[in-house]
Amino acid sequence: MECSLSRSSFTVESWGVILAIGIVLGYMGLLYFGAMIIPGIGLSGQLMSQLPDNFLDWAHAPGYGILALLLIRGLLCRAWPLTYAISVAAAAALVFGLWTEVFQGSVQGRETSADDLVVDAIGIAVASVLMLSTAVRNRIASTCLWS
Q1: What's the chain's Rg over C-alpha atoms?
Q2: What distance in Å separates the CA atoms of residue 56 and residue 89, rounded to the nearest whole number?
Q3: What backbone torsions phi and psi does residue 80 show, to the nearest 5 degrees?
Q4: Cα 135–chain centre separation
Q5: Greater confidence, 60 or 109?
Q6: Could you report the per-residue pLDDT of 76-85, keeping only the tens digit for each?
Q7: Residue 21 lies in a domain
Q8: pLDDT tops 70 at residue 6
Q9: When comparing pLDDT for 89 and 106, which is higher?
Q10: Average pLDDT, stretch 115-134?
Q11: Of 73, 123, 144, 146, which has the fewest beta carbons less than 10 angstroms from its beta carbon?
Q12: Does residue 3 sit within a domain?
């Protein structure tokens, strides 16, 4: 069996998938870059050192929540069932958070923190609950309209 790809074999849907993957990978790169910033060194490090510690501690929640939302939406667009999409996306986002924390420990001036991973998990959980509640609300609204 021979497999060949021609330029015309890419559809609009194919380009949409490529774009979605690019957005997710780009966002993951931003999260990774943020984990590698050394406080007080360079422009981004100077800016980071000006922020209050509480802000930096809780900045993980929206960051990893957005990653979970992007992953969930991507899986839903590929026709995954909602429960599978949420659980797989949440697990993938948490594993990425764990990997980033471990690698952050190897950066001079940074340390690995279990608290950061817990805050990552909180953001992921909030995003998952938001997606689930939106789906339930939409399902209830659609049944009320047809009744």
Answers
A1: 19
A2: 24
A3: -75, 145
A4: 19
A5: 60
A6: 988 899 999 9
A7: yes
A8: no
A9: 89
A10: 94
A11: 146
A12: no
Give start and end residues of each alpha helix (H) in the chain: 12-36, 42-50, 53-58, 60-77, 82-104, 114-146
Residue 3's pLDDT band, with cuts at 50, 70 and 90, is very low
For residue 93, what is the enclosing H or E element? helix 82-104
Confidence of residue 87 (pLDDT cuts 50, 70, 90): very high
The residue written with tokens 């939406």 in the block is 73
| Residue closest to 133 by CA, chosen among 72, 78, 75, 80 | 72
* Total domain count, the chain: 1
Nearest CA-CA partner of 115 in 77, 61, 49:
61
pLDDT at 146: 64
Residue 5, domain member (yes or no):
no
SS3 call for 80: coil
The answer for 14, left when phi > 0, alpha when psi is -120 to 50, beta otherwise, is alpha
Q: Tokens 């060194």 correspond to what residue?
A: 41
Whether 2 maps to a domain, the answer reads: no
Residue with tokens 């939302």: 69
Range of 75's domain? 11-146
